[in-house]
Design a protein that fits this description.
By secondary structure, this protein is mostly beta strands. It contains no helices and eight strands. 19% of the residues are buried. It binds the ligand O=C1C=CC(=NNc2ccccc2C(=O)O)C=C1.
Length: 124
């Protein structure tokens, strides 16, 4: 099938794992994010994710967005991206993210949001 499917198990280049549930009829999905990066201890922590994707019937390479609400900090990350499939059927999620940290005063708001890219590949 030339179509990417978002549901399943993915990993990014940081070593974090993400499980995406079945995508419902309006494009909504939920899942769990096991981050490999934490400021504090080393073991993997699980955080909920919620997102939506464009209906695949109009597009082969679907676009999506999702939010991870980190369970162990007051931070929040939003991801936007697109699923690409190569001619061998390998799927890649190319994303950009914004990470919002909680800061103690409006004067610190300037340094509260970080931006970056992440590439997710499917874990069989
Ligand atoms: O307490 C925290 C706060 C932020 C975190 N950010 N992780 C990310 C931020 C952007 C992209 C990927 C990740 C990741 O964990 O894979 C993780 C734990």
């Amino acid at each position: 099938a030339r179509k990417c499917i978002l549901s399943g198990l993915w990993k990014n280049e940081l070593g974090s794992n993400m499980t995406i549930s079945a995508v419902n009829t309006d494009g909504g999905f939920t899942g769990l994010y096991h981050t490999a990066v934490t400021a504090t201890d080393k073991h993997i922590r699980v955080s909920p994710l919620k997102g939506s994707q464009k209906p695949t019937n109009q597009r082969k390479q679907l676009t999506f967005g999702f939010t991870v609400s980190w369970t162990f900090s007051n931070s929040m990350t939003v991801f936007v991206g697109q699923c690409f499939m190569d001619d061998k059927g390998k799927e890649t999620l190319k994303t950009m993210w914004l990470l919002r940290e909680e800061v103690s005063s409006p004067g610190d708001d300037w340094k509260a949001t970080r931006v970056g890219t992440n590439i997710f590949t499917r874990i069989k």
